[in-house]
Every structure is written in C-alpha cells, then in structure tokens.
Write a structure and sequence with these properties.
mainly alpha; 3 helices; 69% helix
Length: 71
C-alpha cells in the first residue's frame, strides 16, 4: 500500500477553494484574518499614541460627555 501526500502548495490551493466554496469571498477573508499574528509591540506602541491620563481624568471626561448628551 502506497500513500501519496499532497504538496503544501496543493493543500493550500485545495483549502482556499474549500473556504471560498463554503464561506464565500468575504467570510473567507475574515477567516484568514483571524490567523494574522501582527507585528511589533502593541503595548509599547499604544503608550505613544494614547494620552497619559489618570483614572480620575478619564472619569471626569466621561461624566462631561454624559452631561452634554443629556441636554
């Protein structure tokens, strides 16, 4: 008994075809995006673009927005 193995390229091609057939193009892309690992250091980077505020400052801003919306 001999067993033939598919190449990785063949497996990838068959897999994409199955995903497209079962999920359609939009959900196939959404499925694949789940496995993107991303790059960089999110925790370090977000400290650069998020303002440094205390919990009290954030709370005051929330209350201000709520007060403005209730008028």
């Amino acid at each position: 008994m001999t067993t033939e193995y598919l190449t990785l390229s063949e497996i990838r091609s068959i897999g994409f075809e199955a995903l497209l057939r079962e999920l359609g193009p939009v959900d196939t892309i959404r499925f694949i995006q789940q496995y993107e690992t991303g790059r960089g250091n999110y925790t370090r980077d977000r400290r650069k673009w998020l303002p440094q505020k205390s919990v009290k400052e954030i709370g005051r801003e929330i209350m201000k927005v709520r007060h403005t919306k209730s008028k």
